[in-house]
Amino acid sequence: MSGASQDPAGSALPPRRSIWRNWVTLAGTVVAVGSFFAFLLLFAIDTFGPGQHNPYLGILSYLVAPGFLILGLVLVFGGAWWQRRQQHLYPERPAPTLSIDLSQPKQRWRLFWFGLGTVTFLLCTALGSYQTYHYTESVQFCGQVCHTVMEPEFVTYQRGNHARVACVECHIGSGATWYVKSKLSGAYQVYSTAFNKYHRPIGAPVENLRPAQDTCERCHWPEKFAGSLDRVYNRFLTDEKTTPYTVRLLLHVGGGASAHGPVGGIHWHMNVANKVEYLATDTQRQKIPWVRVTSREGKVTVYRTPDYKGEPDPKAVRRMDCIDCHNRPAHAYRSPDDAVDEALYLGRIDRSLTSVKYNVVELLTKPYNSVEEASAGITNGLRKKYGADAKIDGTIAEAISIYQHNFFPKMKADWSSYPNNQGHKDSAGCFRCHDNNHIAEGSKEKIAAGDCNTCHTILTQGEGAELMKLSADGQTFKHPGGSYSDDLICSDCHNGKLQEP
Ligand code: HEC
Ligand code: HEC
Ligand code: HEC
Ligand code: HEC
Ligand code: HEC
Ligand code: HEC
User: Which residue, of 141, 224, 347, 399, has the fewest CB within 10 Å?
Assistant: First the structure.
């Protein structure tokens, strides 16, 4: 028998019970009330909480908590629907009673346990959502949950100048739109990690990186006048004696806002008074054939390389910001050349060993499939050159440590996959535009480059006593690698490895 309508009239049906009285609906109510409670709590933190807001807070309060609320409501209505269906199908079956008779000890206990369960659930939800909120903001969450994938970024980050700035400060920032954006791409990342579909190395530049105005500029005031920075580069040649070569520069970082110091120098590009836009023809933004400058007065100058004839697609034109020079503020992969020079300077690699720079750089740049393979390769290679003497243990340990902190074979991540745009030696960097080959339409002027003392003043260079003589008006660069043709830029020869003979 099915269908209530076919029941003979007058049969003694049990009185109809409310379809809302069933355990599924009741459980749904608890979930819904719990998540509503969690939502209120998170909303309160978001609205009245102190200080800067964790970008994930919004996800929890406006995505996760409502998600559970909806789940709870689905259970509430689902249970009711099921109950109604049961009543239609089996009209003679008494609906489960939900009446509570406190005079019966069994029912009293039931009520007690149900109440206890509800309170515990509510407390756990509140505590859980608060804890989740803290956890997702942590560096650990970003850097270690997807361990292998993020390992290169995490390790380089920890050794960088921003080791105490949380990942989310640069990658998401605060405000609603960007965490939704980054969560959408985050959802894809979770998928690609789970199904092993991610790129090795992870692509850079990050396409959806939030503009620097909203992230970097919250801590670094773009108007700040930086003046000139005194920088010393301690280099070594790859000859037998590993001859030192030092250059000391005054880097004219300058500033971009006249209210706070002279406008000029390297930070002239910062978007305070002028707008610099460019077109890159490769994904890594290394080839820049077209640049447009709009001055404060609205004067527009377009520079282009002689071989670029077309007009760029306006959508592909990018406005220059901090990240176009500081593209590795937190994840700098040191080149073998750089890292070995530093270790030599600090005495961690023993300079008295014959051709030690040459040998260590050569071993570091061999292809290895894993860190273990590299450690074995480096150890064996150096032992073969310098014997079993314990004197070289330190050098071996340092070479391995350089590898561990800058090379990530599993993710194919190292200095060569992530060029650093801050200088011009090992990758084009500034010389992507300042290469004497970007000519203004009309005036035929070039983007300043020819004079090596435009961006910095070479105070002194060389070795030993030579370094005591400082020249305030700048010295001509004495290239330790000999003279070379004017058409070449540094990165045509220098690339972080050994020079090709
Ligand atoms: C000081 C700001 C800053 C902090 C802090 C920071 N990053 Fe980055 N990160 C960047 C910038 C800038 C880029 C992209 C550069 C580009 O587009 O070329 C980047 C790129 C990345 C990339 C893409 C691959 C690459 O190397 O370009 C990943 C993955 C990444 N970051 C993860 C992290 C993780 C995980 C943390 C925390 C452990 C973190 N970042 C902390 C600024 C930061
Ligand atoms: C939460 C604050 C914070 C944010 C966001 C931040 N920085 Fe920094 N930055 C710092 C601190 C702190 C230092 C270290 C200052 C020091 O040591 O003098 C620093 C140092 C620097 C330096 C000088 C040291 C170096 O590495 O050469 C640069 C350049 C820099 N930041 C660029 C950036 C860029 C680009 C971004 C955005 C992608 C950024 N910062 C985002 C706090 C921040
Ligand atoms: C045209 C390239 C370029 C742009 C654009 C640029 N910088 Fe720099 N900035 C440099 C260079 C080069 C240095 C010196 C680097 C060094 O330490 O060797 C520097 C130095 C710095 C320093 C360190 C200053 C100090 O006193 O130690 C900070 C901080 C900084 N930049 C932040 C920013 C921020 C924030 C932006 C974006 C608003 C930005 N820069 C845009 C090239 C640039
Ligand atoms: C996208 C192209 C581009 C890149 C990359 C670039 N610049 Fe520039 N830069 C320009 C343009 C355009 C000008 C203005 C034309 C001129 O003054 O010759 C300029 C001007 C300058 C000036 C002169 C500012 C003044 O006082 O008039 C300095 C210094 C400078 N850049 C340094 C750097 C440094 C250092 C880097 C690398 C860290 C760099 N630039 C990277 C395009 C670029
Ligand atoms: C557009 C600006 C600009 C011009 C023009 C320029 N430099 Fe530089 N140079 C820089 C910056 C910025 C750095 C610092 C890079 C860093 O600290 O990461 C630098 C660093 C250097 C260094 C130290 C590199 C190292 O890692 O050992 C040398 C040497 C040097 N420049 C030589 C030259 C010579 C020679 C010329 C002329 C052919 C020249 N520069 C022209 C911006 C410039
Ligand atoms: C024609 C190729 C070539 C060009 C172009 C070139 N170099 Fe070199 N450079 C060399 C060679 C070869 C050495 C010697 C390498 C050695 O002994 O390790 C050298 C050595 C150096 C050294 C000292 C050793 C080291 O590895 O740091 C510095 C610093 C340097 N060059 C800077 C520059 C700068 C800056 C530019 C661009 C302005 C430049 N070079 C352009 C070939 C070149």
Answer: 347
Per-domain boundaries in the chain = 4-137, 139-209, 228-329+420-493, 336-411
CA-nearest residue for atom 33, ligand 6, is 490
Q: pLDDT per residue over 95-109, tens digit each?
A: 555 566 778 888 788
430 Cα nearest atom in ligand 5: 1
- Asked if residue 145 has its Cβ within 6 Å of ligand 1, the reply is no
Instruction: Please give the pLDDT value at position 306.
Output: 92
C-alpha span between 337 and 498 (Å, rounded): 7
* Ligand index nearest the alpha carbon of residue 227: 3
Distance CA 121, CA 352 (A): 68
- Segment 464-471 mean pLDDT: 90
Above 90 in pLDDT, residue 431? yes
Of all protein residues, whose CA lies closest to atom 33 belonging to ligand 3? 322
Cβ atoms of residues 275 and 283 within 8 Å: no
d(CA 331, ligand 1 centre) in Å: 6
- Is any ligand 6 atom within 6 A of the Cβ of residue 484? yes
Q: Cα 77 to the chain's mean position, in Å?
A: 43
Q: How far apart are CA 331 and CA 23, in angstroms?
A: 53
Ligand approaching nearest to the C-alpha of 223? 3
Residue 209 near ligand 1, beta carbon < 6 Å: yes
DSSP assignments along 242-286, one per residue: --EEEEEEEEE--BS-GGGS--BSGGGGSTTT-EEEEE-SSTTS-
> Per the omega criterion (within 30 degrees of 0), is the bond before 205 cis?
yes
CA 194 centroid distance within chain? 20
Residues 43-71 pLDDT 10s: 787 677 654 555 556 666 666 777 888 89
pLDDT at 409 over 90: yes
User: What is the rounded CA–CA span in Å between residue 80 and residue 223?
Assistant: 63
pTM tops 0.70: yes
195 Cβ contact partners less than 8 Å away, ≥ 6 residues apart? none
For 91-95, 366-370, 478-482, 496-500, which range has the lowest pLDDT when averaged over its residues? 91-95
- According to DSSP, the residues that pair with 318 across neighbouring strands are 278
Q: What pLDDT is stored for residue 57 in this prediction?
A: 64
As for ligand 5, residues whose beta carbon falls within 6 Å of it are 231, 233, 235, 247, 249, 251, 422-425, 430, 434, 449, 452, 454-456, 477
DSSP 367: -
How many residues belong to the chain?
Answer: 501
Cα–Cα distance, 17 to 53 (Å, whole number): 49
What does DSSP assign to residue 500?
Answer: P
Whose tokens are 């330790």? That residue is: 480
- Return the pLDDT at 372: 95
